[in-house]
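ok so I'm stuck.
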Amino acid sequence: MDFLSAFSWINIRFLLDGLLVTLQVAVVSIILSFIIGGILGTLRFIKIPVISTVVMIVVDIIRNLPLLLIIFFTYFALPQIGIQLSIFWSAVVAMTIFESAMLSEIIRAGLVAVPKGQMEAGRSTGLSYLSTLYYIIFPQSIKLMLPPIVSQFISLIRDTSLAVVISLPELTHHAKIIYAQEPTAVLPMFVAMALCYFVICYSLSVFSKRLERRWAV
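replied:
not stuck anymore, here's the structure
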């Protein structure tokens, strides 16, 4: 009875409010990181002198830092240099920085995996380098990139829980508030959080697999 009583409508609604914030942070971060990661990955692929090297160094540094450290940096360190962000945008900026670095490597690897002959064939038809990249290389590489990109997005959704350290009112934070007030609700809240994350992440995985099968056909 204690287990079931933890799932009162008040608690469920409070958890759903937190889940909404989780999804908002994840969606905004996914969109921004995909755009920025795509640009960075492309810059590394086309090997522009100096710029590509700088991008490579920055990406490698970020990829080898813990996400939690980046969250602390955006929330606590940026105000020291005059950049004041809300809790929501501190989380979004941290997630975007980290995921952009991860995605840039995935995108670069996907572009590199396309046979070099495809670029040569495109150029031989009179297309410019960028046109060949856009019309020939990218459409082929996206099929290779999709599984790791979706896996990275799933990781991002799970990693939003780390923003609880800066009191982002997301799912984990709201669950903590509930079981802090109701000690018997600890197990039910962990079950509820696990279910929410599982449904979202599993749905993304299923969507990715269906998309892969469709493109394969």
